[in-house]
Amino acid sequence: MKEVRISLVGFGIVGHGVLEVVRRKRELLRNMGLDLKVVSVTDITGTLLDEKGIDPERLHGLKTLEGIANLGIIGKEAIRDVDSDLVVEVTPTNIVHGQPGLGHIEEALSLGKHVVTSNKGPLVVAFNHLQELAQDNGVMLKYEATVGGTMPLISLIEKNLVGNEVLSIRGIFNGTCNYILTRMMEEKYTYSYALTEAQELGIAEADPAYDVDGIDTAGKVVILANSVFGMDAKYSDVAVTGIRDITPEALNLAWERGYLIKLIGEVPALKVKPMLVPRRSPLAVGGTLNVASIETDLSGTITVTGLGAGSIETASAIVSDVVSIYTTRQIDD
């Protein structure tokens, strides 16, 4: 049985999800020969350490670790001082400077700890640097949850499409935008009304700019450009147009002509903009779904879809990455 000691850095929605998925799947993972233990959880108030593994029930309903943390260390100090094999980094995303996640990931990789993250910011800002750091220290950096939530895009390309040349990827990479456009089309809502509904349902943030202005999708395009196509793309290289100016009239006109309007990200073209999608296209998914069509030289075009967000859903992609680190090659730590 391989014991894997995990430090969880970030205690938001995704952090809670990681704890719960590890709890739910403990026996299944043990049957695979893996004993995953989250031995520490860190947020901005401190660190909770339990060498035997943290029970998610202890943290149920808590928004911070204030009052329950037993170590007064945070950030990089917590990564240094806790004895762990792997760091799961799920702090909030900042695609301008990547912090604090960038510093956390650099610290973990430099210490010879594997990293799994859902945090797009560090990968948008410094993808190639982080990959080189992981390679130099003989560890792995996994990030499936940064580009498609539950949609298995990176792993599909790395594992199942090995030997194929990927020619292009285009798809819907933001569930919030897809939900708004779907409701505008189905219910003839205005953009502002559909956005308000999405906010009331918790699908859109109080400040929706990151999603509706295409920033989130552009970040994912950058990660795909660098990870799949070997580019050295930056956010500033992506031509971005969001969905704020789309009207019900435009959606209706598109429908009458056999199309839907969707916010599409394209790689390696480095474009994010509303585009016409044929109603019978595999990309014509509704609600909060994400979808990507991968064009290859040998296998043709393969389309994959899945939920783009959610606590348990995102955590499932993170735990899958953790498992892949210890099953795709022999780890002797």
TrEMBL record:
Record keywords: Amino-acid biosynthesis, Methionine biosynthesis, NADP, Oxidoreductase, Threonine biosynthesis
GO molecular function, one term: homoserine dehydrogenase activity
A GO biological-process term: methionine biosynthetic process
UniProt-listed Enzyme Commission number(s): 1.1.1.3
Pathway(s) this gene product operates in, as recorded in its UniProt entry: Amino-acid biosynthesis; L-threonine biosynthesis; L-threonine from L-aspartate: step 3/5; Amino-acid biosynthesis; L-methionine biosynthesis via de novo pathway; L-homoserine from L-aspartate: step 3/3
Positions bound to L-homoserine: 205
Annotated positions binding NADPH: 120
Protein's name in the database: Homoserine dehydrogenase
Origin species: Methanothrix harundinacea
